Predict the structure.
Amino acid sequence: MKADRDTAENKADEAFRKELLGTLPHLRAFARGLSGRPDYADDLAQEAAIKAWTARERYTPGTNMRAWTFAILRNHYLSELRRNRRQTDLDEGVAERMLVMDADQEGGIHLSDMDAALQQLAPERREAVMLVGAGGFTYEEAAEIADCAVGTMKSRVARARAELNRLLDAEPDPQALAKRNATVRGRSRRAAVEATDQPTRPRRRIG
Amino acid sequence: MPGPPPAIRKDGEPGWAAGLRKLYNSVVDEPLPDSFDDILKKLDESDEG
């Protein structure tokens, strides 16, 4: 009988492991959105995966593994934040991601712009829009992951969306984009990345 | 090459919404970096014994 039980356990573990491995890329993506730092996000994803593995007996097979592990990850992230008071270093994170994403565009929006805007949101709004807008969770699932009321989640997502609308004009065609860039004037949207040498008004000539 | 999608899609979704998903998916689609070797190994080993 014991042998049977062991076999059943191994099978359950095996199924869990498979599912967990499949979730790893999503944990990385979620962690990166939350923290804005690729290297730190990878640490978070791994730590969350280890916690998930350790707690595997609390997982109900057939339920949403991604939601379950995301909750573990965000709780771990928050406790790390509290413990370390680790500051999100926007410049460093953005610069690093620029290297891989600079040429990538979707709907006229540079992913680096998207990313920079995301990192400007308040953490709970960023989390909300990551879960619902990027991760594809329902409000109910997202509320459970973030341990808040569904209404709270809806309002966080709405605020995040309004803010992103403001930060990213979402004008898709190159002409509109060029126009937008020309009229950017002192907005903080691109500040971290591209506002290196663009005067907001004509520079006075020297001499 | 197909043109870019309209700024506001029929369902009222702003253009950045697709960008947000793409940002997420771009990470999901990356191969796991070497730093994950350890955890992959750990998960592989844990069924032994």
Remarks:
- Chain B touches chain A at residues 3-8, 14-30, 32-33, 35-36, 38-40, 42-43, 46-47 (CB under 8 Å).
- Residues 15-48 of chain B form one domain.
- The CA atoms of residues 37 and 46 of chain B lie 14 Å apart.
- Helices of chain B lie at 15-28, 37-45.
